[in-house]
Structures are given as C-alpha cells and as structure tokens.
Amino acid sequence: MADEVTLAQWNRTLLSRQHLLTRVDEDAVEVLDRCVGLQSQDPRAAFYGLWSRIEGFDPTELDDLMTDREVVRMALLRSTVFLMDSQDARWVRPLAQAALEGEVRSNHLRRLVTVTAPDITAHARELLSGNELTAKELGQKLGQRWPDDPPSTLTAVARCTLPLVQVPPRGLWNGHAGATYRLFDDWVGPGEPAVEGDEARKDLIRLYLRGFGPSTIKGIQTWAGMTRMRPLVEAMEADWELNRFRGPDGAELFDLDGIDIVDGDGPAPARLLAPFDNVVTAQADRRRIIDDEVYAQLVTPNGLMPGLGLVDGRVVARWSADDTGAVRIEPLAPINASDTRALDDEAQRLTEFHRAHPAT
C-alpha cells in the first residue's frame, strides 16, 4: 500500500473530477465524456446532470447533439439506459452485452412460451433494418409471428440482444414521445469498435477513474456491471498506469497515475444532482458522498432515484419540481440555516432554468 487518502480527500476528489466543486464553461459533449456518459432512463436526467456541472448550460445544445447523432440514448452498462458519445457507445455496447443477456435470462426467458431469444433477435433485426419502430409497434409485429408470447417480453428481449438506439424526439428536453428504436449502425452509421476485449475493459477502467477515481475494484465493477476486473487493474498497476492507495478504514483504492488527489479541506458549494446521478447511483463507493442512513431513505422497490441535494459535498436532501418548474427541497438529514439558504439558492437557480426553458 502507498499513500493514504482520507474520506474528505476522497469526497473532494470525486466532486472535482465531476465538476461539482466549480461549474465549467465547456461544451456539453466534453463534460458528458468526462462523466463516461450520464444515466438516462429518466429522459431529463442528463440535462440536469449537465446543468449542475456547466455554467450557463442550454438544453438546446444537448438536443442538437442527439438530433445530429453525436450522442445516443441506449441500453449500455448494467443494462441501463445511458446517454453517451456515439463513438464511445460503439465500443462500450459490446462490453455491456453480458449484463444485457443476464437480464434476458433472469427476467424474460421464463415468460416466453413458444420462441427462443435468438429467434426473436433475428426477426427483430429484420423488422428494424433500415426502419424505425416504436416499442409498441415492435411488440405488435413480433407478436404477429408469436401470438402466444407477451409482446412486451418480445420487445424486451430485442432491446437486450440488439444494439437499439432510442431516437429523438424521445430524450429531447421537450420530447414527450415514447421509445422509438433504430439499429445503432442504421442511426449512427456503420463502423467498427475502436477497441475490443480486455483492451476495451482497460479503457473503461481508465475512463471511470478519470471521472470517478480513486476507486475500489468493487466500485469499478458495480458501476460497469462487470466482474473479474482485478486482474486487469493489477496488470495496469504493474505497467505503472495506476497507483494504489489506502483509503478510509483501510479500503484498497486505485487511481490513474499523474492525476492529483484533491485537498480535503477545500469548500464544496451546495449542488443539486440529477436523478440517477452516478456519483450516487450504482456506487459501491457511495460512502464518500452519502451516509448509509440517508441512502436508506432513498431505496424504493422500483429502484427510482430522485434528484439529490449536496451540502459540503454530502447528500442531505432531495428535490422535486412542480408543473410550473418551481423546485422544492426536502431535507433527508439535519441542515443548518446557512446550508438551507445555500440549497434554496440552488433550487431558485434551477427554477429559473425551468422557466427560461419551459416545458411544452
């Protein structure tokens, strides 16, 4: 073991790399790449994620990236919908295939009566080749071939076994349409992954540590939805790419060589996080930003995650917006008067963002 990293350093380093200490004046795609995509099953979550990180963020910038096909919304890591740079998604999607197939085995196969997953995949590919279909239309067309099987299950299998993009207007700031699917290569254009196999997994580790490090191996694996990453991490350490640290309570942490650990004494302003923000969601290392008793208040049977409020770098509240765009803060832990005012100021800032870009 090498140098020690305190809990405060671990927290501030994460916030710094995620641009949650100081908003940046950068293009949305650059920040999106630094976050290794943004979780996006809530279609507006990525907009809030960028709003919290970019000074003067305009949602039309992200709309344009989607309509220009530079970024895509699709099932990626952990079989979860991400918004990601299209060229990164091309090589990340094959890495996610094992988790997607796991979803088929654990959730969908038992509901099938007359058909196998490979048959669904082949027919769905035929239906979608050069075409786009809503989730309902795809289920109906698959159901015409296999009328004894649930259309929703047939669609779910196709979503997991084919690289399907959810195309606009779904996912736009004011895109209210349901999911409409296109094959990835039909939407983005044909091409080969920039990197494959273990080299792709190493690249994913590099990207994760750049945006979320330092991290435990479990932290990397939980976020990626993959296992058996230790041999790759240790090989990268042996090649002097990674450094090893002792974290809080003796936790074994790894980080990219040459990237600084941030001073734990620096201030952390109040921030509102997006729903499903990956600094909290899918985090085995979440103790660096949220206490267990606060996290327990967020756990729901359907796995939904609200927008959250940070004070001094830790989650202490949740937020919601009403139909007018007004943002309301609900404490999850004791908050003093000055911190309450700081959160209220962020809530007012987000309210003004809503009113400058009203829902239509």
UniProtKB/TrEMBL annotation:
Organism: Williamsia phyllosphaerae
Lineage top rank: taxon: Bacteria
InterPro entries per the UniProt record, alphabetical: AlkZ-like (IPR009351)
Protein name: Winged helix DNA-binding domain-containing protein
